[in-house]
Design a protein that fits this description.
Layout (H helix, E strand, L loop, with lengths): L14 H13 L11 E9 L5 E8 L13 E5 H8 L6 H10 L13 H6 L4 E5 L2 H7 L4 H9 L3 E4 L6 H14 L6 E4 L3 E6 L2 H19 L20 H15 L4 E4 L3 H8 L3 H4 L10 H4 L4 E2 L3 H15 L16 E4 L3 E6 L2 H22 L9 H8 L2 H9 L10 E5 L4 H12 L3 E6 L13 E5 L5 H15 L4 E3 L16 H27 L6 E5 L12 H21 L5 E7 L10 H11 L3 H5 L10 H12 L10 E4 L8
Parallel strand pairs: 5-6, 9-10, 12-13, 12-15, 13-14, 15-16, 16-17, 17-18
Antiparallel strand pairs: 1-2, 1-4, 2-3, 4-7, 6-7, 8-11, 10-11
Helix pairs in contact: 5-8, 5-14, 17-23, 18-19, 19-20
Length: 656
């Protein structure tokens, strides 16, 4: 852990800029906070609409990550009102959050941190809170408290574990005057994290780093690098179809499609294959808030039914702790440790599985460090349950989650780096799907930066490259639900009398044979799709209305359309729908260069804009129009449609 404070780049005049700067420093180190963890605050003044100067607490808002937080990510709360709330004897956390929202100077600000009252009562201008791995490794041991007291002495006070919220704020308000001294620079919340205080961001941050360095030294802590996403699936073991079957079973138990991500961490595989993993990995999460992302325990092996039964028993056993009716969460694990697969994470989106993977890789470091001392010990199951079934989380369930159309589903799109293929991938990503994008261009890997994107450079006409790309995608996301064959080539125009043999064969290879091979390879995965498999072939208007000089393109695309029609017949018993979209005159693709467009417009004696709109509706057709049509055909709105042909061409006289 390094102190990365740089006085030359740190803001010095504006309080909000100061807390943004120090928050980003804190958040940029995953050994301190992960994915929304931690919180920060600064005390300052602001002027309200009456012109009155108001003492305020700027505190991190819900939904913001420290690594990327901006000024808008802090909620400005009236300190006088917070002091009044701390004097109240009892509040539910729901009541507390309501009062915190009402104390804000800005109704458009995010919901303030649930630990806002704690920040408000601590006697310092700047307060920083993290869940640092090294400190958690020291705390999560049978003699954790004694170790903390030995390391820090009077510099930090120690607070026994209490669930974050109003009760914790009240407890600290009661204990702080009794336990703190003039030398006190912060506090440790057992099994939770570190708070440091300072009159400046630099002071609070420097203290924070120093305290973590002291914990690292005590624990002999070693942080391991996360696997490189670009290389993590090259040596994966076993049949990828087994991953898809596992995902299908998990989705059935959850009642919705799920993403299943295989980690590429060799160390995670070693951890998962350890003969003692069933003991080492079943004590509980490193900090209680991780339970929201990882559940209390991982699944060891692949017995999903056994895990679901045990999880339901845990819910029934712990539910009486709460004085309210609770809605049971799904009984699917979020972390799986399997000796062959290594670390696998499960979630409703690719982002959720990535977050769970990050958290568990850090958890392994914590467990390792604790075991080198007196052993790893998490909080009792009841305390973890209280966070997992926190009234604020239950309220979210009652309000109902806002899910996107293809949430938890996986699409494979070929030709995804540009044109129609890229547009299809974009629409599917926007509507919640994870997307495996294949393209001959190496730029496909960076076409999108979303967690749900996996770009694989591959020649679809090469069987082994195609097979390998599909397997990479399945290992990243767990299966395939939607397939959009959009890759295609239009070789140089040539009359039949001047037929180019090489161009003809290349057209058949890419436009027809590659499609047939793709269909054969993806069929086993589509059969397992939780909501039924769907295929939409990007065909062409040329099938119905070919033009001179386009024999190789028209014939090869027509053959591919026949493959799709046969698939619709053969796969209907498997619940797989196969439909075709026929675009025409889509000018924002690689097929249409500026020179070609100008040449065609001159040939017809019209402007380029008029040429683009040469259809019955006088519309300029874009790749996005095609992408939206593809997504619609994949939706439940067309659940009773297969073998259909949908033109996206603005209306063509020859076709009609």
């Amino acid at each position: 852990m390094q102190n990365r404070w740089n006085s030359t780049t740190a803001p010095t005049t504006d309080a909000l800029d100061e807390i943004v700067h120090v928050s980003r420093l804190l958040g940029s180190d995953p050994g301190l906070v992960l994915h929304g963890g931690g919180n920060t605050s600064i005390k300052s003044q602001a002027t309200d609409v009456t012109g009155e100067t108001v003492d305020v607490l700027y505190v991190k808002g819900s939904g913001w990550d420290l690594v990327s937080i901006e000024r808008a990510g802090f909620a400005p709360l009236r300190r006088a009102r917070l002091a009044q709330l701390l004097a109240v004897e009892k509040l539910t956390d729901t009541q507390m959050m309501n009062e915190l929202r009402q104390s804000s100077l800005d109704s458009s600000a995010p919901d303030p941190s649930v630990e806002s009252l704690l920040h408000a009562m601590l006697p310092a201008r700047v307060v920083l809170h993290s869940h640092a791995d090294a400190l958690v490794a020291v705390m999560n041991q049978p003699d954790g408290r004694e170790s903390i007291e030995q390391i820090y002495g009077d510099r930090l006070i120690v607070i026994p574990y209490v669930m974050p919220g109003f009760d914790l704020a009240r407890l600290v308000a009661e204990l702080w005057p009794k336990l703190s001294t003039p030398e006190t620079e912060g506090m440790v919340l057992m099994n939770h994290g570190l708070f440091t205080l300072g009159e400046t961001g630099e002071e609070a941050y420097s203290r924070h780093i120093e305290f973590i360095q002291m914990a690292e030294e005590r624990a002999g802590f070693v942080a391991h690098e996360a696997p490189d996403a670009a290389t993590q699936y090259t040596d994966a073991a076993g049949d990828p179809l087994e991953r898809a079957r596992f995902r299908a079973d998990a989705s059935r138990i959850a009642g919705r499609p799920l993403i299943v991500r295989e980690s590429g961490s060799a160390r995670a595989r070693e951890f998962a294959a350890s003969p003692t993993v069933s003991v080492r990995a079943t004590h509980g999460p490193a900090t209680p808030d991780h339970v929201i992302r990882t559940k209390r325990l991982p699944l060891i092996g692949r017995d999903l039914a056994g895990y679901a039964s045990a999880y339901t028993s845990y819910f029934v056993e712990c539910s009486p702790r709460r004085d309210a009716a609770l809605t049971q969460l799904d009984a699917v694990p979020r972390v799986v440790l399997d000796p062959e697969w290594g670390l696998v994470t499960v979630g409703g989106s690719a982002a959720e599985t990535s977050i769970a993977e990050d958290i568990y890789l850090h958890t392994m470091d914590i467990v390792d460090a604790a075991e080198r001392q007196s052993g790893y010990q998490a909080l009792p199951s009841g305390d973890i349950f209280d966070v997992e079934y926190w009234e604020l989380e239950q309220a979210k369930l009652r309000r109902g989650a806002s899910t996107k159309r293809f949430q938890g589903e996986i699409a494979l799109v070929t030709g995804a780096a540009s044109g129609i293929g890229r547009a299809c991938a974009q629409v599917l990503l926007d509507q919640g799907a994870a997307v495996i994008g294949l393209d001959l261009s190496e730029g496909v890997t960076d076409t999108f930066s979303a967690p749900g994107w996996l770009g694989v450079q591959a020649d679809v006409a090469d069987l082994e490259q195609l097979r390998s790309a599909i397997e990479q995608g399945v290992r990243r996301f767990g299966g395939i639900d939607i397939v959009v064959p959009a890759a295609g080539i239009f070789t140089k125009s040539a009359l039949l009398a001047d037929m180019d043999d090489a161009g003809w064969l290349r057209s058949l290879s890419v436009n027809t044979t590659a499609v047939a091979r793709l269909f054969s390879l993806v069929h086993p995965y589509l059969k397992l799709a939780p909501k039924g498999g769907r295929v939409v072939l990007i065909a062409t208007k040329n099938i119905a209305a070919p033009g001179p000089g386009a024999s190789s393109y028209s014939a090869s695309k027509a053959a591919a359309a026949q493959v799709a029609r046969v698939a619709a017949l053969e796969w209907a018993p498997d619940g797989i729908r196969v439909n075709l979209v026929h675009p025409d005159a889509v000018f924002d693709t690689g097929l249409w260069t500026p020179e070609l467009l100008a040449e065609r417009a001159r040939k017809y004696g019209v402007t380029e804009d008029e040429y683009k709109r040469r259809n019955l509706l006088s519309l300029e057709i874009t790749s996005l129009d095609v992408g939206r049509a593809v997504a619609e055909l994949c939706s439940d709105n067309f659940r009773a449609t297969t073998g259909a042909n949908l033109p996206v061409d603005g209306g063509n006289e020859r076709v009609i």
